[in-house]
Amino acid sequence: MSGDTPTVDDCPVSNDMPMLGLGTWENADPATCQESVATALEMGYRHVDTAQAYGNEQAVGKGIAAADVDREDVFLATKVWIDNLAYDDVIETTETSLQRLGVDSVDLMYVHWPSRTYDPEATLGALNELHDDGKIDRLGVSNFEPDQLREAIEISDVPIVANQVECHPLFQQAELREVCDAVGVDLVAYSPLARGDVLDVPELREIAGDHDASPAQVSLAWLRQQGVTAIPKATSEAHIRDNWQSLSVTLSDNEIDRIEAIDETGRRVDPGFGPWN
Ligand SMILES: NC(=O)c1ccc[n+]([C@@H]2O[C@H](COP(=O)([O-])OP(=O)(O)OC[C@H]3O[C@@H](n4cnc5c(N)ncnc54)[C@H](OP(=O)(O)O)[C@@H]3O)[C@@H](O)[C@H]2O)c1
């Protein structure tokens, strides 16, 4: 791996979305979160992922404002929480998210889970209205099963551009990746480091050693080479940089085969309201 820090142009973009972004779940201390976001943007990241439920939209917005990067160059995504998916609540809480983030619009608004108050017609109808009003540029879903994804595509006049789901070498989502490909929706991998568990996988450690890279970088390179966007959460500058440098790692076909042969150990994020439960 080259020791040089990749530039913005080294990060591939899929349907306007930079394929490596910064996750922020549990980066809840406002000062730390603001600094992580600003550090990432100044390093070259141009995609930041937050959610109403993370309690950090204000800090994310301050991080974007503090960085020496123009707002229009940042792809900002947030998510409507499962208690807010009734028509009026989608409209009202999106306005609140925009205020907290300090922006006029977000680049991508996700339905966080197809759960609790989710009603396909009402929820997607409200998001379509917000799109038409210029408050959200794109519409995405998260944690949607194949049938729910197809139904959402059918109902929404505005295209569904992404399905954000858990995906990493220990939970590879081969079938859902195929479904997303077939319907023309980007798969965005959350928990792309298996919440830290990829660091201990022998196959990833071996491949990492051969590239003078880290297991985290190997996981992120594997996702990128599958056409999957990844949003690793990192708090420290060292982790933010380590993940960004995954853009300099390219795996061989043989290494990709070895990763695909790893025994999968299942989901790390599995709440009772998950649609598969
Ligand atoms: N849509 C959804 O339902 C959903 C669910 C889960 C997550 N997400 C999104 O996906 C993002 C990422 O997922 P995640 O936060 O669950 O887990 P993750 O990104 O797989 O892992 C994060 C953990 O790995 C550590 N880490 C990061 N980079 C590292 C590196 N290079 N070397 C060693 N350790 C490293 C982080 O530590 P430090 O923090 O100390 O750097 C943190 O403990 C979230 O933050 C959120 O934005 C969405």
List keywords for this structure.
277 residues, alpha/beta, 8-stranded parallel beta sheet, two-stranded antiparallel sheet, 10 helices, 13% strand, globular
Description:
This protein has 10 helices and 10 strands. It has 277 residues and is an alpha/beta fold. The strands form 2 sheets. Strands 3-4-5-6-7-8-9-10 form an 8-stranded parallel beta sheet. Strands 1-2 form a two-stranded antiparallel ribbon. The mean pLDDT is 97. NADP nicotinamide-adenine-dinucleotide phosphate binds next to helix 9.
Secondary structure elements and pairings:
Blueprint (H helix, E strand, L loop, with lengths): L12 E2 L2 E2 L3 E2 L6 H14 L3 E3 L7 H10 L8 E6 L6 H15 L6 E4 L8 H13 L6 E4 L3 H10 L4 E7 L7 H10 L2 E5 L11 H10 L3 H11 L3 E2 L6 H8 L8 H8 L17
Bound molecules: NADP nicotinamide-adenine-dinucleotide phosphate.
Q: Biggest sheet: strands side by side, in what order? A: 3-4-5-6-7-8-9-10
Sketch the topology as an H/E string, one letter per element. EEEHEHEHEHEHEHEHHEHH
**Number of helices, where a helix is a run of at least 4 consecutive DSSP H or I residues:** 10
Assess the beta-strand content as a share of residues.
5-15%
Spatial extent as radius of gyration: 18 Å
Which distinct ligands sit in these coordinates?
Answer: NADP nicotinamide-adenine-dinucleotide phosphate
Net shape: globular
Q: Specify the helix fraction band.
A: 25-40%
Kindly, what is the distance between the CA atoms of the first and last residues, rounded to a whole number of angstroms? 41 Å
Return the structural class.
alpha/beta
Low-confidence stretches: none
Summarize the main sheet: 8 strands, parallel
| Total number of strands | 10
